[in-house]
Amino acid sequence: AYCWGDNPFGQLGNGTTASSNVPVPVSGGYTFAMLKAGNSHACGATTAGAGYCWGNNDFRQLGNGSSTNSHVPAAISGSLSFTSVNAANHHSCGLTAGGAAYCWGENPYGQLGDGTNTNSGVPVAVTGGLNFVSVSTHNDHSCAVTTGGAGYCWGYNFFGGLGDGANADTNGPVAVSVGNTFASLSAGGLHSCGIAITGAYGWWYNSI
Q1: Sign of the CA dihedral 103, 11, 157, 200?
Q2: 206 pLDDT exceeds 60?
Q3: In the chain, N or C: fewer CB atoms in 10 Å?
Q4: pLDDT over 80 (residue 205)
């Protein structure tokens, strides 16, 4: 894994806080299956299923039980086996090999999806007992696709980003109201998008 750019919180993961305009190797010698860069932290899942995050940890979005920034990959607490880990603004979410979704970090809008609005420094299970094939996080909401192709989102919803036809925040998954079978969903900064059997869909803030 390699990272580059701004690095005041150690989000490049190379053990320093020096910015770099060329790729620098992430410390630890891990072999990652995937990576996701967030606002000022990053997370990844190794080929062996271990989850790591590094960088800014002011809202405990690294998931290692502390609130201290880490300049190198820090293991996510809980000994969970992840297929993917997504870094957002001040929270993160991961998907286990069994299809369960877990989130951690900041939670004022319910973006952790655990049925509360309480921040958590360790992974908490997303409510509903759903089995997901993918999870996407960004800013203050998250979206996921179930094994059956149903779309769900949770968290901040003032502009309708959860796609449920409402504008109320929710701290647990709510179904995207398109009523279609999704191949993927992507949570963006001020909008969300999905690819369904019948085509591509978008929803949320649309004035820009």
Answers
A1: negative
A2: no
A3: C
A4: no
